[in-house]
Amino acid sequence: MMDWTNLGFGFHETNCNARCYYKDGKWGKIEFSTSNEICISMAAPALHYGQQAFEGLKAFRGQDGKIRIFRLEENAKRMIRSAEGIMLQKVPTEIFTEAVVETVKRNEEFIPPYGTGGALYIRPFLIGTSPQVGVKPSQEYLFTVFVTPVGAYFPSGFKPTQVAIINSFDRVAPQGTGQLKVGGNYAAGLVAGAFAAERGYAMVLYLDSKEKKYVDECGPANFFGVKNNTYITPKSDSILPSITNDSLMKLAEDLGIKVERRPVEETELATFEEAGACGTAAVISPISVIDNLDNGKRYEYSTDNEAGPISTKLYQQLTGIQRGEIEDKFDWNTIVE
Length: 337
Ligand SMILES: Cc1ncc(COP(=O)(O)O)c(C=O)c1O
Prior knowledge:
- The chain is of the alpha+beta class.
- It has helices at residues 45-48, 72-85, 93-106, 183-187, 190-198, 243-254, 309-322, and strands spanning 17-23, 26-27, 31-33, 52-54, 57-61, 67-70, 119-128, 141-150, 161-165, 203-207, 215-218, 221-227, 230-234, 258-262, 274-279, 283-292, 298-300, 333-336.
- Strands 1, 2, 3, 4, 5, 6, 7, 8 and 18 form a nine-stranded antiparallel β-sheet that branches.
- It is globular and about 55 Å long.
- 45% of the residues are buried.
């Protein structure tokens, strides 16, 4: 029996995972395996040259007992864009969808019960597997989907965190792979993440790599600020288009909050009433402090250690839709029968 309240964000074994192989110019049938291991050539380009892409989405147990997968089609589309960006074979949307839905179904008992705040995290990934040593796109691919139950991101409540701007690290290059969900971007951020963590910060807030003038994103999450009843989020070619951010923008508009997606200069941070990081993991991580470790500037929000009213409202709306408590008027959930 799982201890649903102490899950954290780790890897737990489940019943099975999906695999689909691309070989001789075509995708094969989706197979299910009970093994947690994959067997690939040691000469696979995924291992040497980072020719791989991944996704992250969640399934929830609703108030009505139904299973809902949040914005599955958007994740399928984003993986296609990632594949195009580093010359991976694209996974057809039908294969992506069937593999995700079927893997969730076959692991139904690992979905945390309604009320625990947990979810079933779904990790699709695509790797170039042909045995080759040269730097060129793989001829063969493996697409895999596994799931793992994850706990509530805020077990003790929706509390703000502190983030750091560190100009001496770049996450991605201005015309590089920042818009793609590919492993290399994450490896490139590990040193900056550790540097921030050692100094007590939960995340790095990256500025644009070219001028160090504009806000890009927050480690594995997009950034947003709120002022004058307006939700403002950076437009940049080097950030991952967050599906959570897209959802929050639509919800904000629906709630009568103005939405602006445009370049955000660091100096504007001083003018926000609320700030947050958004992504699948936490939906929203409210931000209380942004410290620029290079110029010593500090930007403060939520000084009472509580999330601001607009962040709280958006968080409640989004999590309510995911758990079947609020009408899914944008048709974001795939209900697993
Ligand atoms: C770099 C980066 N930015 C933003 C996000 C948030 O995206 P999403 O809302 O689709 O999870 C993620 C995580 O998924 C990420 O890795």
